[in-house]
Write a structure and sequence with these properties.
Length: 334
């Protein structure tokens, strides 16, 4: 995340507010505080996890009820009109004047509004509007992202907060994403599912089992990254798709990788993929891309090379891959 020196004034103010709201001090001192923020938010969520079946959707419903957050979903422009009628005209909430322009933007995944005229007991004191115009894949993650704003940040009436799809998001959004990952895949109910398969090979069959058990509405990528993070041995996730060289998208178009999650074990073992490197011709990843059939195979990472002659450190890994549309989702583990 951004260093303290590169934070904007607005980011600094909101990060300080998070620290104060959670009782962690008065000022944000740097990225080293992310873990403290996450642990504090987890502690606030823990009472709602006790005795809960391992279901992420149930947890999001319980948290939304307790924190007075109502989720609204936009799948078409008529849904926007309906929300404007309810919140702008009937409930006279001026913040919803921004709704149409903001939610119809392809850059915004979700918006969180704090109502000005709500009573303390109203179940919709906060309204989270999810952008499902193009896909519902992010809905599960965005629910927890907006809940994380509600849990971590104090009331401030400067909403909406925006859950943006662009990579150039501010430092606050990065912190909130860390919180969302922790509570959306809460270790008290999620980690036992991972522990139950720890003696098996890490493949997408295992990912599918955990996804169907814990959060069927979560995206494949979100569940994959969560499992990789909690896996007890070196593991990483990646996406492969057709593309050209960096900054020269039409040059040397080939199947190239985009690294996703990587766990601490992988970092210590120096198991890593180089962004945008080509997938080797003989890799199972390319075979899955061509056939569309899920496959897993042992490979030597020394065959993964770059255009300038570099290559990955040679070691035997298991690669599991599935194809969804034009993308390949991959797992690499030791």
């Amino acid at each position: 995340m951004k260093s303290k020196q590169t934070l904007s004034v607005a980011e600094s103010i909101r990060l300080d507010a998070i620290v104060t709201n959670l009782g962690l001090g008065k000022h944000w001192t740097g990225p080293e505080m992310v873990d403290e923020v996450v642990e504090k938010c987890e502690a606030l969520v823990n009472p709602f996890v006790r005795g809960l079946a391992p279901k992420g959707e149930v947890l999001s419903t319980k948290l939304a009820t307790h924190f007075h957050v109502k989720f609204e979903e936009v799948r078409c422009e008529q849904d926007v009109s309906a929300l404007e009628d309810v919140y702008l005209r009937q409930k006279r909430e001026p913040g919803f004047l921004q709704l149409r322009d903001e939610i119809l933007s392809p850059e915004n995944d979700a918006l969180l509004f704090q109502r000005l005229h709500a009573k303390a007991e109203d179940p919709d004191r906060w309204v989270a509007v999810l952008n499902l115009l193009k896909t519902e894949d992010r809905a599960y993650w965005n629910r927890f992202h907006e809940l994380s704003h509600r849990i971590a940040e104090p009331p401030q009436f400067i909403l909406p907060f925006r859950r943006q799809r662009t990579d150039d998001r501010d430092a606050v959004e990065e912190v909130i994403d860390s919180v969302a990952g922790a509570i959306g895949f809460h270790r008290a109910i999620f980690d036992p599912l991972v522990a139950a398969i720890r003696d098996q090979q890490l493949t997408f069959d295992q990912i599918a089992y955990i996804r169907n058990t814990y959060a069927p509405t979560a995206s494949l990528l979100a569940v994959t990254n969560a499992v990789v993070k909690r896996w007890p041995r070196p593991a990483l996730a990646f996406i492969a798709r057709m593309g050209g060289r960096l900054r020269r998208e039409e040059s040397d178009v080939d199947l190239r990788v985009c690294p996703q999650g990587r766990n601490a074990c992988a970092k210590r073992a120096e198991l890593v993929l180089i962004p945008n490197m080509r997938v080797p011709k003989g890799s199972v990843v390319r075979a899955v891309f061509l056939s569309g059939q899920n496959q897993s195979a042992l490979e030597n990472t020394g065959t993964w090379t770059t255009s300038d002659g570099g290559k990955l450190r040679a070691r035997e890994v298991l690669i599991s891959a599935v194809r969804l549309g034009s993308r390949i989702y991959g797992l690499m583990s030791m």
